[in-house]
Design a protein that fits this description.
Two copies of one chain form a homodimer. Chain A contains four helices and 21 strands. By secondary structure, the first copy, chain A, is mostly beta strands. Chain A has a single domain (65-393), classed as 5 Propeller (Tachylectin-2, Chain A). In chain A, strands 1, 15, 16, 17, 18, 19, 20 and 21 form an eight-stranded antiparallel beta sheet that branches. In chain A, strands 2, 3, 4, 5 and 6 form a five-stranded antiparallel beta sheet that branches. In chain A, a hairpin with an 8-residue loop joins strand 16 and strand 17 (304-308). Chains A and B meet through helix 2, strand 1, strand 17, strand 18 and strand 20 of A and helix 2, strand 1, strand 17, strand 18 and strand 20 of B.
């Protein structure tokens, strides 16, 4: 037996140069494919972990540009009006549609202890789902309410928020968080429910059922199912969602997947959940034969764009910065069951807390990017954002930090 | 033979659960160690690729805070005075020392075609190495020139820039770029030379030799050896440097390592060079038994902090944002040959191009962070930088981009 085994191991050793014995220095012209020489870990990763050795040639790398929207009034951002958590943008009837969380209350949010039937606890308490349309994606006409809060004790009686849209066999489905207590009572607890309509302009019929239920006691998603985000993929509805878990002290946010054959379910949660370890809101799109995700704000792998060839096992595709929060792109092929997702060039996002904590409110914003196979925008592919010094100085030392340093 | 081989393969198959058959959902309490269940790729990476599942418990994750320095005059930032590319900060004689590239010319940089003996081509042309001292790291006293430009044709006659400091057996060594043509003539070409002194206040004796030579024709570092950055590690001098290569169209910047037993060499370039695939200036420090690097601005793995247990094979330790450029930390154990590097809490960096291209100049700035085993600063460990909307809107669409979108 040894006669056969030993040559096998010798063969392996022969193929791997472990002696740092490159006979020549690394070449001036960067090879586009992995060269046959021993490489440092960092240079090797360029070839094994990314689609190109140049960020600007990586279809899943982009900078993000931001434009203020026309058509929305915020009462001088005094905290009484908020618009946040936009849905994906869809194009129907010659115009773009977006749905979002809309709050219009007499006072800004006052926290869970001071809230009541008309005073909101959080920025998304006592909210409805409103919608707006636009012919260019920059100037919007607010169309009013799409989903009202139902009467108590129906799902969402306290607040309906953070909607997203599915178009399926000629019908429209809005999935959203249905609060049955004020956000902040324990945490930010809710399941997901849905409404459907024959037109994007409604009227919307609530299903009055929980569509994505919270996990059982002790499971990662036992308290919150946030940011339901449906895409049509692999002939099914892939609905991604976020949950907060691990308690308050070291709260983590991850994203899971629930799959269904029909819009109203049943949705089966994926056994490998959570499938995205970092980030905050759900922001995904079909790309080539897989699914891409914008991962930002929270967790170990924030500031990345990730890709899962199977929609489940996400790898880092690029590292970027100044990403849009609550990003909700316009995805032309979101519901076409595409096998070659073309990617995205723009969408909606939000800025939270634009007036400070005492006048808490959020606003919608447009972002543009080049995460598309169909355009190539050099400016979007610049390696870095150039900030003026004041942006850095704004990130100054706190009083506590200065005391630590000067002690 | 088959009798022995087959059970071996069965054993492998038995150990790897490939059927997505988790019998329970992921737990609400995030396990600190990798749990025995099948995991998605993203969640698995939390345990295999990072020192903690929580960014805030990762010693090599930090945000960065910025403070304007007192004590430096810039002629109202009219482009005639620049200070950039600080050295590591050292502490001697009861005060901190920093060296930097200093330019004081009658006109701002005019490009390689318009430059002459007194008009600079680039921001770092016709420069000298100056130094300053401080008792607190915030208010600095400029002490004047450390390294003048030598007479032509000595190394550095056109400009001496981008110095860094080594303390070795009671002597002080400054390594710096020695230009023998105006930057921009072909590219930004220079080798590295050095000067030494018995005191950080000088006088400095130039060695008048090339210490780190450019590579041979066709090698990655044939044109530039930038940002020489010496540390004492493994009983030797580990000098990291940067080179630009691959031509102008798709220029890349990577970092290499040269090792010597003595400050004036000979330095042997590492056979695995380049050892860092991304970033811009060199910014490294001893950490535990290895070397950590700040990697920013350019390349696939910008916005990361990396770690090499052997000083050569760097892995991503964390992903962050708004990093200091040309970061040059105060490293208390930079020259102690430590086997347990304690890390860094502050240093110097620069902002380039603070007045626009026509009045090009750069300024020094202080950064603070928590990349230290010896402090834990909650504010430095926040997952994200909160910017006001104007920071995003500043990154707006260009005219060219608006024309593409509205065409």
């Amino acid at each position: 037996m040894n006669k056969l085994i030993i040559p096998f191991f010798l063969l392996i050793i022969g193929c791997v140069n472990t002696s740092n014995e490159n006979k020549t220095a690394f070449p001036f012209t960067l090879p586009e494919e992995m060269p046959e020489r021993e490489l440092s870990s960092a240079v090797k990763r360029l070839y094994t972990d990314y689609s190109s050795v140049h960020p600007q040639e990586n279809e899943l790398f982009s900078q993000f540009k931001y434009t203020e929207l026309k058509g929305f009034d915020y009462n001088n951002h005094d905290g009484t009006i908020t618009r946040r958590d936009p849905s994906k943008v869809i194009y129907e009837n010659g115009k773009y549609y977006v749905w979002y969380t809309y709050r219009n209350t007499s006072l800004p949010p006052q926290g869970a202890k001071k809230c009541n039937d008309t005073i909101p606890s959080s920025d998304w308490d006592l909210a409805e789902i409103w919608y707006a349309t636009s012919t260019d994606g920059f100037t919007w006409e607010e169309q009013g309410v799409a989903i009202k809060r139902p009467a108590k004790p129906n799902i969402g009686w306290r607040s309906v928020t953070t909607a997203d849209i599915l178009v399926w066999e000629g019908k429209y489905y809005l999935y959203y968080q249905g609060f049955m207590e004020a956000s902040g009572t324990r945490g930010d607890d809710c399941p997901v429910t849905a409404s459907w309509a024959d037109s994007p302009d409604g009227p919307w019929t609530p299903v009055n059922e929980i569509i994505i239920p919270n996990g059982k006691n002790g499971e990662w998603d036992m308290y919150s199912i946030h940011d339901p985000y449906p895409l049509v993929y692999n002939d099914k509805i892939y609905l991604y969602y976020k949950s907060d878990f691990n308690g308050k002290e070291k709260k983590v946010r991850m994203q899971g997947l629930a799959v269904a054959d029909n819009p109203l379910g049943p949705f089966e949660k994926h056994p490998l959940n959570p499938v995205i370890s970092s980030g905050h809101e759900t922001s995904l799109f079909q790309f080539k034969s897989g699914i891409a995700a914008l991962v930002y704000k929270d967790g170990v792998e924030h500031n990345t764009i990730q890709y899962a060839a199977d929609g489940v096992n996400f790898e880092i595709a690029s590292i970027t910065e100044l990403m849009p929060y609550a990003a909700a792109p316009y995805i032309p092929d979101a519901f076409t069951n595409t096998k070659d997702g073309r990617g995205i060039t723009w969408g909606m996002a939000h800025f939270i807390n634009v007036s400070g904590w005492s006048r808490m409110n959020s606003m919608l914003v447009r972002f543009d990017c080049d995460l598309s196979q169909d355009i190539h925008d050099d400016e979007m592919k610049e390696h870095r954002v150039n900030h003026s010094p004041d942006v850095y100085f704004k990130q100054g030392l706190s009083k506590k930090q200065r005391e630590r340093i000067f002690r």
